[in-house]
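ok so for the tutorial part 2 we go from a plain amino acid sequence to predicted structure tokens. step 1 is just haveing the sequence, like this:
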Amino acid sequence: MGLNSTPNANRIHIGFFGMRNAGKSSVVNAVTGQDLAIVSETKGTTTDPVYKSMEILPLGACTVIDTAGFDDIGELGEMRIKKTKQVLNRTDIALLIVDATIGLSDYDNRMLELFKSKEIPYLIVYNKSDLVPNFKVENPNAISISALKNQGIYELKEKITTLVSVEDFKLKIVGDLLQPNDFVVLVIPIDGSAPKGRLILPQQQVIRDILEVGAISIVTKETELKQTLENLGKKPKMVITDSQAFKRVSAETPNDVYLTSFSILMARYKGVLDTTVKGVRTIETLQDGDTVLISEGCTHHRQCEDIGTVKIPNWLKNYTKKDILFEFTSGIGFPEDLSKYSLIVHCGGCMLNEREVKYRMKSATDQNVPFTNYGIAIAYMNGILNRSIEIFPNL
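step 2 — the prediction. this is what the tokens look like for a chain of 395 residues:
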């Protein structure tokens, strides 16, 4: 999968952090070889995080993120710092850019503590080292460079590639559960909420994963599933469905055929399946007045029968027979304080990288708030959770 076709959520995210005027944007431009970020002598030139896709071998497709100075001031400065902290939640590699003529500041040390607390591999990059005679770096987690004179940039890229293993990012969505020539039936409803003229990202990724392992995918709508299974002439290894059609698809899929959903596969792919399965049973204990947070990783135009804001709330109310309150978040917005929620129901997270989905899960578990996802919740309320996860080993 090439750079342009690699979804942002599947790229290694490299964040550039540091004080204002440490030269973060100059370092970003030097590393990317492009004038990606605006460079100025004025402190605080970078306001919102700036994202750029690039290739860094042997890591492959990466997303480089330039952030606002962590020492920004004023009300707007506080908002920029908040956005910078949000970037940390999706950062796989952190680079702390330090002005070599000043050295590590209290702000820099605070950033280092954040990197460590979030277990983010990091590198301290002393920029402007050409301005300090005989500047030396003794910390193995540090390097000296000059973005202005393009000194040490190659060595910086080389050092970046040692911070993570490429193998850690080569995850399978479903391919490791299949053998060559297995048949897999994908059930994709085409209704008012389906995007016009295309498949959504999890569907594309699952199809690609099936093809790469040499298995065979058959795509159909839920209205044609029964006829499709009858006409195959061979029993499929599994049926993967959009969660919204779980009930009907379960009824029409033979019991000796594995059944799961795109959303459940994404929970496994993002490393949160075990927690989401445990968290879903909280549905049984919801009471009148409890608040449930429904969170999506993407922002899209809401349809009248939107799954997140309409269908799941209605299904939860009908299942529990309780007067439940709901709050909704989308995109990168996710509350830091989760204490008022009795349950969090998250989407599959296809637009978020693994680190951010795990951050959200950990935020919930650290605050003793149960965490589940769309597919797990829908399967549970339809009484087919055990069936929908039986294909996964060691669960």
